[in-house]
Amino acid sequence: xxDKNTALVPEEGRHCLHLYYRIEHGQWQLLSREEQTxxxxxxxxxxxxxxxxxxxxxxxxxxxxxxxxxxxxxxTPDLQTANKIDKxxxxxxxxxxxxxxxxxxxLTEESEYITTDEEYAxxxxxxxxxKPNSEKFAxxxxxxxxxxxxxxxxxxxxxxxxxxxxxxxxxxxxxGEQRNWYALPYEERRxxxxxxxxxxxxxxxxxxxxxxxxxxxxRDPLRARHVPDQGDCLxxxxxSGERGVRGLRRVFRRHSTAARRIVPPxxxxxxxxxxxxxxxxxxx
Length: 284
Description:
The relative contact order is 0.19. The two termini are 41 Å apart. Helix 4 crosses helix 5 (135-156). Helix content is 29%, strand content 23%. By secondary structure, the chain is α+β, with helices and mostly antiparallel strands. The protein is elongated, with a radius of gyration of 22 Å. The longest helix is centred in the middle third of the chain and has 22 residues, at 135-156. The strands form three sheets. Strands 1-3-2-11-10-5-9-8-4 form a nine-stranded mixed barrel.
């Protein structure tokens, strides 16, 4: 029997946990000024302690709309650690001050549509007319392998950037009762994703995308998009519909003037978490 304290670390990837809370302002106002100060200090210290953990990252957020008040995005290798931090954050401002309103647990993953060496070599031959035994061909292949190594590393073991705007949404591959992305042949899906990726490359250096995956049963109310498809050829095969339990996409986008924010459906959030004018959490 496995010890309950045994680390639960996946063979590949990191656990990614989103937590959103509503602040019970009535309960908060019952605290004295000294108790409020102590609560704020406790939360700020907890965030710093989490950030000091090995291979663990956390982003703090404040929801602008009434959907939630406070949020956290956590990436860590051990599920036991994620569970512990979840409980600590829930009580960080004191009993009954934070009420959870939404959470999402997933794993970072590598894309199943990644370009292989053979496919890129074929592209070099057919589109750039390079001969396989030429020096330019070898240089191009080495450069491609270096890029893909970095790409895989960032997908599976990401580093969350300190950028001002963040957007995330859940996306299922099911569209109603008749349409399912995975009902298409793999090669057709791969071809469509290639067109999808060409749109994404237009935002290189401006947008950082992190996709994590999960599988399960349940109700998921989040339905949102961040970057317009702009002629995305996927729309020919997969029509707009439910976005739910399969796949979680986050986009970190630069913004020179705004505070760092995360945007769930119909809501913008600011990364300096606040409880009215009373509570503030350092972003560093």
